[in-house]
Amino acid sequence: MKSITFGEVSFSRMCKIVEDYISNEKESQYNITIGTDSQNYDITKVVVVVSIWRVGKGGIFFYDIKKVNKITNIGQKLFYETSLSIEMARKLEIYLQKDNKTYDMSIHVDAGNNGLSSSVIPEIVGWVKGCGFNCYTKPNSYAASSIANRYSK
Description:
alpha/beta, Phage_KVP40_Orf299
């Protein structure tokens, strides 16, 4: 994982940073969001983001970049992005639960009601909710449509 604040860190180090960040101001409200976006070049560049927003006081985020064979079908691309987000959220959830603490995590999907992605939104939202996470789409999916988008270009 990479961070503009902490540099390159392992997954477990990222989890420890997140845990410490939340512990520093326990009275604050936190939104933990995971989102993925991708861009096509001669390959598909995929960026997974873990964002921790201390509501009203800023936040931190981490991102990981993958390069995979080019995915041209929009539905396949959105399902692949969502699968990576769910996988990351599950791993983070397992790590953070080791201290018997629970955190509210959301998945941000880079799909909106306008355009080609609109047809798969019900399926994706149902899948994410079925996995136990809240799901947000555009315009409320900042982890995917803003942060991940920025690093996928």
